[in-house]
Write a structure and sequence with these properties.
27% of the residues lie in helices and 29% in strands. The chain is α+β, with helices and mostly antiparallel strands. Strands 8, 9, 10, 11, 12, 13, 14, 15 and 16 form a 9-stranded mixed sheet that branches. Strands 1, 2, 3, 4, 5, 6, 7 and 17 form an 8-stranded antiparallel sheet that branches. β15 and β16 form a beta hairpin. The chain is globular and about 55 Å long.
């Protein structure tokens, strides 16, 4: 269950959590066309700070542009609304969910005059894949469901309807006793997790899926920059499921998952079966950054 906070921002006003409702015939509920973001605010040594706020807002607007939704607010208005929502709920650390959706009006696949609504919620939420997963690593399974083709679902956009694919994959692997799904792209190469980007490490080099049929992850980009700043080679190219099997280390990244190590794939142990030295190094640096302890990346934090 969600840990309810007090207020949700809806179309310019803060309303009580229990009153944040939409009509059952809201267009996006039926057809899945909308855009959203997942953002984290961390309790840093200098107070609450939102991680890469400007980048998340920019991706929200890019997603809207891709699916032809005209945003009813400016970037600065959304940015300030996100900050207002966190502050109004007196949250020191939280997950933030802005969503832009096509509202109540006409029905059918093509509508011209339905309103575009925006809501922003924030609530306390721990690690998506569990604190134990962050520490020990998780077990993942290659899903039988294929990730999106670039000309069927435009993968740069973060669209609610696209996540049906993720939900099916996640349900499949959880039923089989695993923690998370990894999906292949339409050509059979490793794409990403159900809600995360994926990295492997072999012989001291990091490899991650290129931005062809995957979401352009903000945590992904952060880890690439951190690794390169450490002098670690990072290659963005396709790799196969057996490349994943023989990796020395592997991990997932995402706003919700942060940096979660993978210890096993399809009943095959990865490396030593526990988070490896490169993974632990990157994970430690990442958390030092988001908690305000590493000032080299201070521009990534927006303090409240």
């Amino acid at each position: 269950m969600l840990k309810e906070s007090e207020k949700i921002w809806m179309d310019g006003k803060l309303v009580d959590w229990k009153d944040a409702r939409v009509h059952v015939l809201t267009h996006t509920l039926h057809y899945g066309v909308g855009v959203f973001e997942g953002i984290r605010c961390y309790k840093t040594i200098n107070g609450p700070a939102i991680f890469r706020l400007d980048d998340h807002v920019e991706r929200l607007f890019s997603s809207a542009h891709i699916v032809n939704i005209d945003m009813p607010y400016s970037r600065e208005e959304i940015r300030e609304a996100i900050k207002e929502t966190v502050t109004a709920n007196r949250l020191e650390a939280c997950y933030i969910r802005p969503i832009v959706y096509i509202g109540y009006g006409s029905m059918g696949l093509y509508v011209e005059d339905n309103p575009v609504n925006v809501a922003i919620a924030a609530w306390s939420w721990g690690s998506y894949l569990g604190d134990e997963g962050l520490e020990r690593g998780i077990r993942v399974k290659i899903s039988s469901f294929t990730r999106h083709h670039v000309n069927i679902s435009m993968t740069r956009a973060k669209v609610p309807g696209y996540y049906v694919n993720s939900v099916l994959a996640k349900k499949e692997v959880k039923a089989a006793g695993y923690d998370e799904a990894v999906l292949l792209d339409p050509d059979g190469y490793i794409a990403e997790g159900s809600g995360e980007n994926i990295f492997i490490i072999r012989k001291g080099r990091i490899k991650t899926t290129p931005l062809t049929s995957i979401l352009e992850g903000i945590t992904r980009e952060s880890i690439i920059q951190i690794a390169r700043d450490k002098g670690i080679s990072v290659i963005e190219e396709r790799f196969t499921r057996d490349d994943l099997y023989i990796a020395d280390e592997a991990f997932l990244t995402g706003t919700a998952a942060e940096l979660t190590p993978i210890r096993e794939v399809d009943n095959r142990v990865i490396g030593s079966g526990k988070p490896g030295p490169v993974t632990k190094n990157l994970q430690e640096t990442f958390f030092n950054i988001v908690y305000g302890k590493d000032t080299r990346y201070k521009d990534w934090l927006t303090y409240l």
